[in-house]
Amino acid sequence: MVETTVIQSERLFPSIKPIERAVPLSLLDATTADFSSTTAIWLFERPDGVLEDEFDLFDHFRRSLHATLNHYPQWTGLLKSITTLDSARLEKETLRFPQHARRFGRVYAHYGSPQDPGVEFITATSTATIETLCPASRTKEEPLFDRQKVRLDSLIPSGRLASAITAVKKDAAGVLPPVFVIQLTKTACGGFALGAKIAHPLADIQSLAYFVKDWAKISRWHLGGSSGLKPIVQPIFEPERLDSMAIGNINGEDANPEALERIKSLPLHRYDCTRRQGDAMDGMGFRRPVSHYTVHLTRDQVETIWNKISNGDPKNPTAERISRHDAVLAHIWSCITRARKQQEDTGLVHCNLTYGTRPALHFGDDFIGSPTMNINIEMSGKELASAEIAEEQRTRDVAQCIRKTISQMSQPGAIGAHLHSVAFEKAPQRIWQAFLGSRHLIVTSWARVGIYDVDFGLNTPIRFAEGVIPDLDGDVLIKDAPPLDRMKKSSDRSAWTDDGVDVSIHIRAEDMDRLIRDPLLLP
User: Fold this and answer.
1) Per the domain annotation, does 104 fall within a domain?
2) Which of 130, 357, 433, 471 could be a cystine partner for 191, CB 3.0 to 4.6 Å?
3) Among candidate residues 342, 209, 273, 267, the one with its CA nearest the CA of residue 32
């Protein structure tokens, strides 16, 4: 039995005290205020002979984290929201916000004040080894890896994060809960695990991974004796840039009817998460036993899937080119649909894809926040999985549906219309654009995020990087697989699929049993 023992829990702050500020988060950030946290775990192998015996791993990470937080002060402060409709009762720090940021449910960061909770930094030890947590042979010998046999829960900080929309209470020491928690765990083999979770309005996985890579830059500099050039760390925390992409006047009294009309034609669900009646609860995955597997597709398997469908459709020569990501998603969605026994179902089933807006809005990877939304890709179960349709043609049709839907949403005007509508929502967190259950998937992609580009300068290859998503029927995460060459990084690849793809799948246990027996799952 694996045991994890906490050694110390402390609050860390920037080494340079920031000027007190209150910054409205973006309209899209506000929609994520009730989402689960953004959480990731990195498993690092034992440092390979570059450290002296007296090297203190915990102290090194503590000191380099202090310095890194100088560039992310908003993650050490408070997460708040507008909780009143009465403008006379607004908090003083919000009075200079633009009109749209002072509406009910809008979220903001307040930092540099005496009430800042800081980042919680936990150090711990574990009786597990890195090999126990993730065997080196996993991708070759266990491409269908049951994650419930070897859980990573103890490597994730267990404390509750602050929420922007629910009341927060001080602990016994009179300290408010943090918005960001990090746990560094030494393993029995001399390796270590880094677990991090942050409130979703402040960071999606792109932002969290960017922070960890910045932290790694500072770490390498410290290990070099801080004698060389100090690394450039310049994350962009400018939520107002995203809001400026909204069409029309979002500070006016009324929404633009044309913008509201346009979003009706966009591939967007609109669920009200406060309404739970009729059969809605029966479709939710948390009422059923759920299994969790990591499915590994090798590079050759990905190429096999992609090559069969990427050469164009002879029936539709003008169709858009399909990416490897489109192909992988089409393949997995079809297999899950078949496992759910929907291959003859003429009703719609839905892939709710988390869509990052940075590329479409020409924002770089350094844009910090949570500029994401969920788009609805839909087809009938029969179109997705029927044996009556040739496999190559069926997968091509699914991939083209995915590409067409993404292209429809990736136009700046479409995103701008969505931002406009969110600006006038009575409560941005109330409207959800995704759902779970037997007719739905929620698919998050970490492709090209660079989760294997983290190098703290300790000569420690990353054995595995895991995203932590809720264990509910229909949650799926697509990400890069670890480099086959232990000393290489994601950035050394010519394509993000060069070392294969890991797909983390959470579905109902009886459906998972059918999925892992499907002869088409691993080409």
Assistant:
1) no
2) 130
3) 273
Rounded to the nearest 5 degrees, what angle is found at the Cα of 147, between the Cα atoms of 145 and 356?
95
Dump pLDDT digits (tens) for 380-436.
999 999 999 999 999 999 999 999 999 999 987 999 999 999 999 998 888 788 888
The partner residues of 181 in beta bridges, in order of sequence, read: 120, 197
Nearest to 499 by CA among 252, 280, 213, 298: 298
Number of other residues whose CB lies within 10 A of the CB of residue 90? 14
Average pLDDT over residues 14-33: 95
Asked if residue 325 is part of any domain, the answer here is yes
- Residue 127 is classified by DSSP as S
The candidate with the shortest Cα–Cα distance to 40, out of 167, 212, 201, is 212
With H, G, I as helix, E, B as strand and everything else as coil, classify residue 327.
helix
Handedness of CA 493, 494, 497, 500 (dihedral sign): negative
Q: DSSP 3-state assignment of 68?
A: helix
| Cβ 501 vs Cβ 81: under 8 Å | no
What is the number of structural domains in the chain?
A: 1
* Nearest one of 370, 373, 330, 375 to 352, comparing CA atoms: 375
**Separation CA 441–CA 63 (nearest Å):** 41
Residue 279 lies in a domain: yes
- Using an 8 Å Cβ cutoff, are 337 and 381 in contact? yes
What CATH number does residue 254 fall under?
A: 3.30.559.10
Q: How many CB atoms lie within 10 A of CB 455?
A: 17
What CA–CA distance (Å, rounded) separates 460 from 57?
12
Domain that residue 378 falls in: 240-447+471-516
Q: Is residue 366 part of a domain?
A: yes
The rounded distance, in Å, linking the Cα atoms of 501 and 36 is 24
pLDDT in tens, 450-491: 999 999 999 899 999 999 998 999 999 999 999 988 767 667
How many other CB atoms are found less than 10 A from the CB of residue 477?
Answer: 21
Phi first, then psi, for residue 507 (nearest 5°) are: -140, 170
Asked if residue 149 lies in contact with residue 142, where contact means CB atoms within 8 angstroms, the answer is no
- Give all strands (DSSP E) within 454-520, no chain letters: 462-467, 475-480, 501-508
The whole-model pTM stands at: 0.93
